[in-house]
Fold:
Amino acid sequence: MKSTISWALFQADITWLDIEDNLRKIELAINKSIKYDIDILVCPEVCTTAYATKNPEIAQSMDSQMINKLISLAKNYNVAICGSFMINEKDKIFNRFIFFTPDGEIYKYDKAHLFSLAEENTYFTKGKAIITIPYLGWNIRPYICYDIRFPVFNKNKIKNGHFDYDVLVYVSNWPTKRYNHWKNLLIARAIENQAYVIGVNRVGKDGNGFEYMGGTMCIDPAGNMILEATQDENVYVVHTNYDDLVKIRKKLPFSLDWDNFEIN
Structure:
């Protein structure tokens, strides 16, 4: 396994409904961070369209030019790329987290908690499956924005000394007015699951007039802040270290007393 993963966290000002321009921005973010020998680039929620829940016609298929471009970028730059995208599959619209590896493997997670306050549940189809992405010897658990408010759904498990995941990744379009929720929920998820937490949020104003403050973060398994980004469009490079993760889990073996449960 790779003992340290280098992450590039792209805090984007997403261009409203302009897939081509947002793909251009993603490639620029890779070029900006590639000198740091990054392993994974994380983009925000719906990073090629913005949070246009009432514009399902812009959703792309899994064999679209958009997807093929992202596959190509991952391969050509030898970096994994992930974020969420508006996807049309058999006339159903999904807010789908996609993880593209340099060797062409693709992992998918469909957002399970649709944000009814913005009528996301009216236009999108709810996902059903939790996934864990095995990459570079680490186990990565992806979630999307509103999912963070449901701690049981996010809960780590331990069996025979092995944790379900090592890193939680949240991609989001989280509004400025609820920044305090965002920060405290991210810290709580790190502490209660004894995992690194990465939260990548957008900045700027979307086509509906909502403002986003950024606040992209990386938090260690003890709840200590590694990164709390400012409100600019930027790429932030952070590192997660497996030895440090193991040390925290052994020093504070709270997982031995976790409750057993199943999600139906």
In short: The first strand starts at residue 4 and ends at 11.
